[in-house]
Amino acid sequence: MKKKIPLTEDERQIIRQFCELLKMIKTFFYDDIKGFLSPNNKKAKEIIRLLPPWGGFYELPEEQFFQMFGQMQVQIGLAITPIDLDAPPLQVISEAKRRLKDGLDEESRARIREIEEEKRPQTLPFFFAMLGQLKCLSMFGMSMHHLLELAKDSDEALFRAVLVDSAVIETSVTAQRIKLAEAMRESNFLEELALSLSKSKAHRHKRLDDMRAIMAFVENNIGLDTLTDDDLVIVFQRDLGLIGEKNGDSLDAIKWQIRKWKRSQEGKF
Questions:
Q1: Which of 39, 98, 157, 210 could be joined to 151 by an S-S link, Cβ 3.0–4.6 Å?
Q2: Quick one: which of 220, 218, 243 has its CA closest to 228?
């Protein structure tokens, strides 16, 4: 068992800042970008028909995906230089927040709407893929790449990936599994896959969505097992308000969510 070490004030600040960044990212992609790409936007429909598929982006390791996304932002003028992901976490978060805040004005939204036609096939699919990454992080506390890696040995992980974004149907992981199912006449798998494709996205508690994302961040940067019981309550209830009093005993509720999340990281859904 890992030694429990109280969080420093800097570490608490990093977690709080990441939570604020997460809210800004959701606003940017779900309100600004997704608003433009809504089904009722006739111009968007014309553009989307010409786009190449984006499911392949989900097979990229996280670092490679975000590097490419940063390069794309530079290409269309939404950023001058890529963010240095090797910088200290607080510096990376602060820079990302600054750019998102600056990017929410009408001029930047107009840039997205008026991306040059020849650049659209290289840029807009990234936005769809980023939306999928955000949904996967919220629903399961992991990246699409991680979920697809689990899907190589787990049909349940594959069904969950399809539930996040049906575009994963074009990935090599999905294609290989469908090929096997067709050859071996696995009708149960094909029926379950069809069901996943047709399922509506289940309603989820937004606070638990954020909690899964925060757990992934803390695990990767600090380690959930090193947090003391007091810090668990301070971070997830008092500071971030992700677990409320109505959840019963706060500490038990938090620990239950952490255990559930950790099992999912191993493909135990």
A1: 157
A2: 218
